[in-house]
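Minutes, structural biology subgroup

Action item carried over from last meeting: produce the structure token record for F-box protein 15 (Phoxinus phoxinus). EB confirmed the sequence was re-checked against the source entry. Recorded below for completeness.
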Amino acid sequence: MTEAVSSTSVEEKPAGYWKKLLLKEMAGYTDTMWKTELRHMNPHTGMPALTEHVLRRLHIQWEITLINKNGRESVYEHTHTFFEGSSVTVYWNRGGWPFMSSLNGLQLHGIMCPARPASGDKPRWRSLIHTTSLTKSVHWSFLGADELVKLLRFNNGIIVGVWRGNWKIAFVMINLHFHKLIERSLLGSPFCTYIPMEDTALDSDRGRHGYTLHIVLHNPLHRIMCQRFSPLYISRVPYQGDYVQLIAIDLADVLQHRPVAKISVPWEAEGFQGDVERCCMMTLTVLDEAQRPFWCVSSPVRMSNKLRVLDLEHAGEQFGIVYEDVEGKVRMTFVWMEDLQQCFLVQLITAFPAAKVKRRFGGES
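Output recorded by EB:
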């Protein structure tokens, strides 16, 4: 950056060259081999097969910044991570935690740490992944509880555990989908997120050729269920003409029904342990015919009793999980079979706006 250059060589550089070079130098990395490593795809998940390897090799970590109502910031480094084939769950449970009522927001940054920190190292580059409001009036809902903690669900795959007696934070969990995770953890700035280019297809008929759906239910310790469905074909959602759907598990087809392990979120904080039942993390990936990501979701989900009981061959209590954002919807139906002491997933439907298909592939959806 400090080497002498002539005015002629400076003028020959393309627009934005020096800005990119400055940001690259500030970030402190010159290793671009990861871009080549990410070209190798996992045929099962549709995600880069070496994502976990690259994250560990580059010593990428994540830290959260809690911002109170006076603007004061407190930074927390993650305690541990749980890697699953298409996502990573990051866990924080150490440090002096504030009360929920005192907070205004949360920021998540990706950090590339040196393998062997030294006194002369540059300040660590921080790449903003997302900012989330923590105020009660904005985007949080009750996820579950046990005898000691309550789990609060926020946007961007965030779970905040608070002690039942005083609503002081006990721990934080965030589920991060592998799609563009390394780019988001490296290529943003401390104040701006990395914005990937929108992927569009040239074949206007490709949206009808078949999709692949990969779904995992898991928690910070283990995988609960993992299934892959391909090919799936879109159909209109009855009475919702502006939506199209993919039916991965049909309620009427008993052969498609899948057994599911216990759905819960175990936790640990300040020497205490617990297990909040009927909630977990969901990592969902929808791929188009070319195996390119079409819709990616990593979010906490809650299992609730179904208000409308469906007529099934299975006799047992019915539960449902519903997820919805601006990009799409997921609906799952479960049945608990008392005689087998086993839960079954008997319906899985994803739906997304027809306009999303048209925007991606062009033509009529």
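Discussion: The two ends are 50 Å apart (CA to CA).
Next step: EB to file the record with the rest of the batch.
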